[in-house]
Amino acid sequence: MGRRWQRARRAVAFAAVAALAGGGLAVAAAAPSAAEQDTADSWTVAGPPGSQLTAELGLDAGGDLRLAVDRGGSPVLLPGRLGIRTDQHDLTTGLHFTGRKDRTVHENYRMTTGKQLQRSATMREATLSFTGADGARLGVVVRVSADGVAYRYQLDDPGQVTVEQEASTFEVPTDAKAWVQPYQPSYETERTETTAGGANAAQPATCSGDTCSFGYPTLFDVGGTYVLLTEADVDGRYSGSHLDHQAGSSSYHVALADGAAVTAPGPLATPWRTAIVGSLNTLVGSTLVDDLAPPSKVKDTSWIRPGVDDWSWLSDGNSPGNYARQRDFVDYAAAHGLEYTLVDAGWQASWVPELVRYARARGVDVLLWFDWNDLRTQAQRDAWLPKVKAWGVAGVKVDYMYSDAQSTFQWYDAILHDTARLKLMIDFHGATIPRGLQRTWPQVMGVEGVRGEENGQNATRDIFLAFTRNVVGSMDYTPTWFSRPNRQDTAARELALPVVFESGWTSLGDKPEGFATQPLAEDYLEQLPTAWDETHLVSGGPGQQPAGDRQVVMARRSGDRWFVGGILAGSGDTMKAPLGFLGKGPWLLETVEDGDGGQLQRSVRTVTSADTLTVAAAANGGFAALACPAVKGRTDCDEKVVTAPETTLTLDPATTTAGPGAGVGIDARFELPQGDALRQVRMTVDRGRLPAGWTVTGPEVSGGSLPAGQVLSGHWTVTVGKDQPGGTVEVPVWAEYANPAGNGAPPVHVEQVVRVSIPLHGTVYASDQPFLTETNGWGPVERDLSNGETGAQDGKPLTIDGTVYAKGLGMNADARVDIDVQGRCTRFEAHVGVDDEVGGKGSVTFTVIGDGRQLAASGVVLGGQPAVELTADVTGVHTLGLVVGDGGDGKNFDHADWGLAQLTCAD
């Protein structure tokens, strides 16, 4: 660093040490004053008008570049190293300054989710250009806003660029209070309050020697100014990163995921190294991570709809595999005005379409969980995503990625393109943290990246999350489990969580019976939005209150109503919420707090912005409140829950048989038995979901109004494609009408199907037929691939003892599929054996079942053995079962192939 810049820093450092001495902070260096900026080897980037922040860069005599941050003239981040090393150039040292360009970046944009839907961002930007010792060029782009400072590198190499390491380092006074999370790619470890220098004591430690790793976002308190470190604008060009810290030091070094290099086409702009800086209210309200992200890639967002879902997995773990139980959750959502039901791990493709039809007729959309192993490849996504979209699923929750590697971010890029194209919303569970992707991809409704409700209760952790993880994006915490066994908090605190925490999809964790025990909670949750016009921190912070507890009170506005949530960690204490955020006029304030016997109680009073709400909270307690303008005659803030009326859609015929080229006449009757007239009614055959070659004649029918007792009728002729193979095809007919709930809710969709059976004929492969039932030891049954064991379509070509089979089924013991063969076939045959992918291990049995009778069996077949030819007479059989059993040594390695499994059927 130049001598003048060094002298300036030393002078300010002495003043900073004196100013911070009362807080016990040790400051090693500080920033220059405004009068000592812009020398030959130092540069200043000041924030826009109203900002107290300044970024200062300096280059020392050896060509090492550093960046520091001041707030109001006081040092916050001390000079930290900048630079980047590729496989071709070392741009971490020996740098020479060549130029500077400045501009102001101002953007207005609208989000579909988040703490503030309408955004306005103003940032001062400086691009500093340097050359390395070998002449290679480096651009350092610095942005300063009212709520933070960020920088990124620009590499103008035109070809492929491989980044091996960044020198990027944040320097924090060692005695600064810190809230850190030991790094794991799941982001599900606990957060710990410590100091910047002592962070390595946090458990469970993720360390190599004396260097430990910490996940974003990481929070520090530097003399009353808070600094939240994270990153923004990460996609498949790069990997995610985390912070490495050597024990006792002030340095937090940016480390690429897994220590691996990243490769991308040049020119390359790296992710933004980001520091949100200011008061706690500034942090909570900051949109900096989204401001730094690329604009939306989705022009039409009208189909994107945040909302509340009821989710059965947390409180009733086996229920996602039970169709009848999922209907219970749909019924609950419909009765209470919830937008969605989320069906988690265990659902079956055999009944999900029927559940979706049941739900949509009641004004509820279905969200569907996926293991990412089922969507990992483009072929898997092309197979599954259009299918569930055709079923009517509104969005998917994808789980278990657990990686910050570049390859995983490339997968994120791909599935975000796919879901946007298909108009499917998405939530990422078992995922990394958000880094601005909800601005770029507005169909992202939430991201886990948090130790949430499913990982046990920790009241102190929840306080920390409000000032760390949830600051940077929607947080899929899955709150509210009132019936939780041995629950460690009060009911009022549970109710406050979905206000304190923001997520575009808020997945409620209890079951209908649990919610029913707290009717006041049900009333409150019926009113709850999940996307907000405005957010304020009302009171509290991550540190302890004078009584030793910790608190946070958050206020979020939707339209003209304010939702307020307060949570407490520790022994009981008084919670105070100044109501200055309300604005002018009298307001009606409903407060829900803990009453006697574990029940909630509600009070209503009139307040103004000069008042303070005071709640005597129990240990690990809290409260939830709702405020609305007090107008004459209004006694509460509730908006009426409007549910979809019961309707009937009748199709004639419901089932039929037709051969290739034949026509099927379909009559439909749609009726509202009772209630207010339906508006904007339309009914048609869904032509887009029919197989290629099928045609439909007959118009869509519609009516501006359909009163109770009247019938909307339609008639269509559907012609089977001439090349249609045998099997069953569902022909969907739907009616839609304007949702009586209004407020932009999508039309209510009522659908039924005509099941057209096309006679099986000629040679029919088992892998081309729908399964009536399907079970498998590991992963799904694969069509024309080996089992692969984990996700759908993750197998390889079916191979037994070196012979490859183009068609067939891949299973893992114990397994079974049932197929409807219509009584039209005479012979089944297959070449069966253990797939070569298990390297000669495994032992299985193969059995053919016809209408409940055993028709053929193989005996035990060993890995490495040649294929066994298995045949069966299936004359007159309607349901064909193909069963794989364990050969006696456990199901590991039991990858069973039905090579060329085929039926000979009547012409």
Keywords, separated by commas or semicolons:
907 residues, mainly beta, 10-stranded antiparallel β-sheet, 7-stranded parallel β-sheet, 60 strands, 42% strand, globular, disordered N terminus
Structure description:
Strands 7, 8, 9, 10, 13, 14, 17, 18, 22 and 23 form a 10-stranded antiparallel sheet that branches. The chain has a 7-stranded parallel sheet with strand order 29-28-27-26-25-24-30. It has a 6-stranded antiparallel sheet with strand order 31-32-33-38-35-36. A hairpin with a 5-residue loop joins strand 35 and strand 36. It is globular and about 90 Å long. With 907 residues, the protein is mostly beta strands. The protein has 12 helices and 60 strands. Helix 4 (323-335) packs parallel to helix 5.
Mean pLDDT: 94
Note the gap between the termini.
Answer: 87 Å
Largest sheet: 10 strands, antiparallel
Count the strands? Answer: 60
Class by SSE composition: mainly beta
Summarize the amount of helix as a percent range: 10-25%
Rg for CA atoms = 31 Å
Q: What general form does the structure show?
A: globular
Residue share in β-strands: 35-45%
Number of helices: 12
Show unreliable segments: 1-36
